[in-house]
């Protein structure tokens, strides 16, 4: 018997500290689940939710749209997962190579609570960049005693989450690193911070610590070590007062107009950028996740469905800018909760918020291409009982890097169809008993349907206009009977097989009185460890409206009978809890990072083969310091990059009483940072 680490006894969902809940999600776990719909009957919510203007228009249901929706539902039967795999195997997909994953050959890191980044034997690491390091010309070195909004606006932001590395042709050994900065932990940033009375300087520093960073990084010869190139002309910061442009079918809608922006197209700031994606045309996508927590005094039914508080906010930004006060600016929250697209190669570009991809708590957005070159973007709405979406563009990507091609490609996500998933199991409901016990056919599996919500200006949802579908997408999902999932986080299509992997991180409310019970895709009640769903669409046609699915992992301690590792022997895998981010290595192995481990270990990064005889052989690659979450994994041939988010975020911790000494040791401020891990012998990762 392996020695199990003591189970945490945290009342917080996913084992998080109260500090995490307060600063990251605005205590979402303690609030009512926003999805109270029964999915067949959403009349009250819609009626109360939509504006007076929309109510007047509600009678004018777009019959053409409804008809289109109906016909789209009658698509061809979905392929089985195996059929989709064999169809995928012999042919080159849009991403090229099709040879199988080699499996992973490193000695797994044991679960642990070491206050460090722990990597396998034979591997080394370096801190690439820390919160507060200057990246723009003129920005000062980090000084915790003199931190200011002005300094922060030229420095790497706080709480790095999603990471992307893009090539930089012509500059040898350099790449462009793009990072999300999801949120701020004021109590760990400012000495003597008083949550009841934040100062303007503290608030404006937090504004500047949110958002995105672009920073060129340089490889060290003969190792995987990376260091930032400060003052590179591509380096950039975007934060809470930077300008963004709303594009796509809802841009300019009355629902998006404010007193500062009567056009409904110009937004200041991007908030709570969690995970994201990298497009085949060389841009990055960034999910705006728990944006609700920054807005005070919400009241309408739409606010309720998005979890906007009726009172003050934790950070009290509403006292410093009226746009965070819903009473004064009722439409301002409608301008957050989108997918942002950034062109990191054009430092003067205004990033876009793509309304065609819908508004919800976007965790991430990862595209793949159809055989005819149209992007398909998969997206999770990270909330208990919320939905899983995809967008299919009607426009084809232009190849090349000409100005005309780049301008065209920046419009790809403005036209197309937004869908939500309805997922059905193939086993009798009575066999899904909520314990995680496999049904008699030996697998949690079944089929699914993509239900169209809107195409351009045409709504497919009776009673909602297209603009309403885009701005109140959760309500549209309620109306069409989308499947209530266990917190869909990152989603990633395999560049080798086209199969799509969805991290469902946990849902401790599943099966509670009055809440949805277990179903085949979400098979455990009080689900604290999560699962990973594998979805197969037609390889040539990810724009199709039917799919096959099965659970790839049912997470937890392998000795817990309610776990499943794609059928791989459970005495040969690492324990995993709360999968969050998903990435692929160049060989086609799947990598998963975790947030909120409930097995007593720190969070970490894991690799697993998805094909062949080692399918399901999950191995832990690293663990992160105390209080931290593992984010943003990138697996290159010779380097793994992770974002260590919120280290030291433990109840009772503060600048004066740190809970972690990472990354710089005792007496130094704990700082979220990006870490590179590489082999000491300079060879490829994991092989
Ligand atoms: Fe920001 Fe859903 O993690
Ligand atoms: Ca089944
Ligand atoms: Ca996440
Ligand atoms: Ca990902």
From TrEMBL:
PROSITE patterns linked:
TAT
Q: Where is this region: Disordered?
A: 506-525
PANTHER family assigned = DUF839 DOMAIN-CONTAINING PROTEIN (PTHR35399:SF2), SLR8030 PROTEIN (PTHR35399)
Pfam family of the protein (one): PhoX
Task: Give the superkingdom in one word.
Answer: Bacteria
Q: What is this protein called?
A: Phosphatase
Q: Where is the composition biased (Basic and acidic residues)?
A: 509-522
